[in-house]
Amino acid sequence: MMLDATLRDVRYAIRSLAKHPVFTAAAVVTLALAIGANTAILGVVDAVLLQPLPYRDPGRLVAILNHDRDPVAPSTFAAWQQRATAFSRMGAAEYWTVNYTHDGGTDRIPALRLTADVLPLLGVAPMLGRVWSADADQAGDDHVVVLSYALWARLFGRDRGVIGRRLSFNGESYTVVGVMPPTFAFAPFWATHAELWAPLALGDRIFRDGGQSLRVFARLAPGATLTRARADIASISADLNRRSPGATHGATVSPLTDLVVGSVRTPLYVLMGAVLFVLFIACANVAHMLLARGAGRQREIAVRAALGASRRRTVRQLLTESLILALAGGAGGVLIALGGVRLLAALGASSIPRVQGAAIDARVLAAAVLASAGTALAFGLVPALRATAVDLSESLKDGSRGSTDGGRRSAFRKFLIASEFALALVLLVGAGLMVRTFAALSAHDPGFDPHGVLTAVVSVQGTAEAPGDVRTAFYEQLLQRLRATPGVASVSAINHLPIGGDLWGWSFHVAGRPDPAPGRARSAVYRVVFPGYFRTMRLALLRGRAFTDADRDGAPGVVVVNRQLAEHVWPGENPLGQRITLDDLDKHPRWLTVVGVSADAAEDGVSDAVGWELYVPYLQQAQYQSSPEGHFAYMTFVVRAACADATAACGPGSVAPALRRIVGDIDRNVAITQVQTMDAVMAGATADRRFYLVLMVTFAGVALVLAAVGIYGVTSYSVSQRTHEIGLRIALGARPRQMLAHMVGDGLRVALMGAVVGTVGAFALSRLLSGMLYGVTAHDPATFAAVILLLAAVAAVASYLPARRATRVAPLTALRND
To answer: Which H helix or E strand runs over 737?
Structure first.
């Protein structure tokens, strides 16, 4: 019986909605956009924040680092591993790159070396083969590798026979012993593109201080808490510092999940709140439409009541219509979300961890269905109750002429409009702050000129160019031939690219100055460059000179420091001629004379504070010229093209083929990777803020349009209900201009009420955004004022258009047609 009644309600609702296709389409499209945006963002939030990391019991995994992110020394790791009791396993990882030479050329593959405990503590078994044992280096098992699924598929076509195959990495033979499953990725917050893992044998490195290159990972022991683990590490580190001052620097124990998603948690929740605001505004708009439709259906509802239909029965019928609208909007929203989540994954690929796993799965679909049902109740209940609160005699008597808008119904509409404008103001302020931030980042001077520069990492590891007697000759030959290439203005090379490259800190001592207190040694970012670097990057030299070809082995050691270092180490003094050393004072240090002071250049990010930097000539760095270690066997080349237009024949894009050709002519086994313009590097540094900017501006724009449509619709409806009144007032002598000002004033007052409430909400939102802002304060008065003025203008226009139309109707026509 109940099922039959429900089916009748559904059939009647479908027929009723089909009779008003414009109304139905407008409501469904409005809801589809809002539900689709919410579902897409929920898919991203679920993949990034809610899904557990793809390891066994990931809540028990921690990382132990210096100052949350920095590596530690092997000796420190060995002490932690031997003495800590709060962990069941502890292992370390070190960054590694390999050149893989094959018939098609040479690929440079990002990789990690891992101690034997790392993969077991993650609890993920290989899909094929095995991992190495704890005594891998003693058993002669140190030259084995485990491949990622993606690398296995790309280079070996998913050939299961790859297990046991011997491959040449960096000119050495390695045996493939395992392939990890498709979902495995490690490490999730650092070296995220690693596709190959090999044993890390620390040997006697654990007995030497310094050389901070390890990231440490551990699993909490059964019953151990994070607090206990932190106390354990703090106690051991304090003892190490007592024995050897400065051995550790602010060791921290952090949940692995926090390191992966901690920086994006607040921004993503802000975006989730933003799309919920859009959904609320959409619900308010549909509620407006249903209220207006309900007022026009009062005679129909009165007839149903006169024929015996109870108010409960009529409300159920109207809610059925709302539910059908919501479900239709939800179905359209899911289709929008399917494309939207792919778009979001593409936009956030370079800045949002784990976003590539975003999808509309069963859980997200269930949330979309619940959202659809919830919106039906949100926008349908009050209009249904209002529509069924009718006076039978009045509705039947005046039904042919329509009924006037009651005071309570008008107040509810004004409440909805004020709410829409409040929510729109919050979103617009957030978008405005993000726009101001991005504008400030775009205008920020990084200290050098990135336009027209091509960058590329050139690695000689494992090739005939790697030995010390030919490595430097190879680089110098490559530089010489590039300088002679048409379209090249200048060229040089650096160990790590500013902004887009790694940061190596190096401690130093200053001649004639006492060292700081233990544990507070002077340290600067260590840059190794070829002659011509400052000219190529257009990095200004404020004093002194740049490096020349004469600054090589056998010549006096020289160094260029940046302004920050010079002003802090030699305040009020001339830094030129001062001396520093990068060596230990008790080991016959080589002293370097300061020959230049450079302008400050951005280091790790466009907006990050600039620290101390020092530049040393490649031709005077023995480890870069001959060390067999892979992290000394590559340089990043920077080539300034004759013009900055990347698409022009003289632009940086034209240099890349020449670079590849010249390297291939010298040695086709040398790997060239990360070929990109410096503009692209800069864009990557602001990718996260650009992602949030695009979404906030999009959501704010949708909210503004919906709010404008809402106030336009309410004003139009109000005017249509007051046509008789307007005609009568004009007939009695009222000026159309006065009537126009009165109706526009009504709309502005409603918008102003919403703006007052929205300003309070915007202050709260701006505090959440403060960590994402740059060059603008969270409570920037100019942004708030501009948004309020914009909303006032929108409200004025949306109120003016229907009001003007009404005042232009001739009084006799208005009275006759009423």
So the answer is: helix 736-769
SS3 361: coil
Q: CA of 594: how far to CAs of 105, 241, 547, 556, 609, in Å?
A: 42, 32, 11, 11, 23
Which of 508, 70, 516 shows the shortest CA–CA distance to 249? 70
In Å, the largest CA–CA distance within the chain is: 109
Neighbouring CB atoms inside 10 A of 642's CB total: 18
> Is the distance from CB of 654 to CB of 661 less than 8 angstroms?
no
Cis status, amide bond into 785, omega within 30 of 0: no
Between the CA of residue 365 and those of 39, 76, 336, what are the distances in Å?
8, 48, 12
Q: What residues have CB less than 8 Å from 498, skipping those under 6 apart?
A: 446, 448, 537, 601, 602, 603
Angle made by CA atoms 86, 89, 95, in degrees to the nearest 5: 120
- How far does CA 686 lie from the centroid of its chain? 9
Tokens standing for 355?
A: 């976003």
335: Cβ contacts below 8 Å, ≥ 6 apart? 32, 36
Report yes or no: 129 and 179 within 8 Å, Cβ to Cβ. yes
Give CA separation, 417 vs 163, 519, 713, in Å. 66, 61, 10
Cβ atoms of residues 354 and 259 within 8 Å: no
Q: 635: part of which helix (H) or strand (E)?
A: strand 634-641
CA dihedral sign of residues 248, 112, 353, 360:
negative
The three-state (H, E, C) secondary structure of 411-433, written as one string: HHHHHHHHHHHHHHHHHHHHHHH
Reported pTM? 0.78
Residue position matching structure tokens 């400030």? 440
**Among candidate residues 624, 678, 264, 656, the one with its CA nearest the CA of residue 499:** 678
The phi and psi torsions of 639 (rounded to 5 degrees) equal: -125, 120
The tens digit of pLDDT for each residue in 594-648 reads 999 999 998 777 667 788 999 999 999 998 998 887 788 899 999 999 887 767 7
> How many C-beta atoms lie closer than 10 Å to residue 623's C-beta?
12
Please give the structure tokens belonging to residue 738.
């006065």
Measured between alpha carbons, how far is residue 772 from residues 160, 263, 275 in Å? 46, 10, 18
Q: How far is CA 333 from the centre of its chain?
A: 24
Residues of the chain with pLDDT under 70: 1-6, 9, 104, 134-141, 208-211, 244-249, 292-311, 378-379, 381-410, 517-520, 606-607, 646, 714-734, 806-818
Instruction: Count, in order, helices (H) and strands (E) of the chain.
Output: 23, 22
Decide: residue 718, CB within 10 A, 0-12 exposed, 13-18 middle, 19+ buried: buried
| Whether 601 contacts 498, CB under 8 Å | yes
Distance of alpha carbon 51 from the chain centroid: 17
Q: List phi, psi (to 5°) of 589.
A: -65, 150
Report pLDDT for 482.
94
Looking at the DSSP bridge assignments, the partners of residue 507 are: 523
Rounded to whole angstroms, the Cα distance separating 101 from 167 reads: 9
Separation between Cα atoms, residue 321 and residue 13, nearest integer Å:
5
The string of DSSP codes covering 57-89 is SGGGEEEEEETTTB-B-HHHHHHHHHH--SEEE
Say how far residue 610 (Cα) sits from the centre of its chain. 22
Could you give the CA distance from residue 603 to residue 767 in angstroms, rounded to a whole number?
27
How far apart (Å, rounded) are the C-alpha atoms in residues 444 and 602?
Answer: 10
Return the structure tokens found at 521.
């040694």
pLDDT at 140: 46
3-state secondary structure at position 545? coil
Distance CA 242, CA 349 (A): 44
708 within 8 A of 794, measured Cβ to Cβ: yes
Among candidates 180, 275, 260, which has minimal Cα distance to 695? 275
What single-letter amino acid sits at 626?
A: S
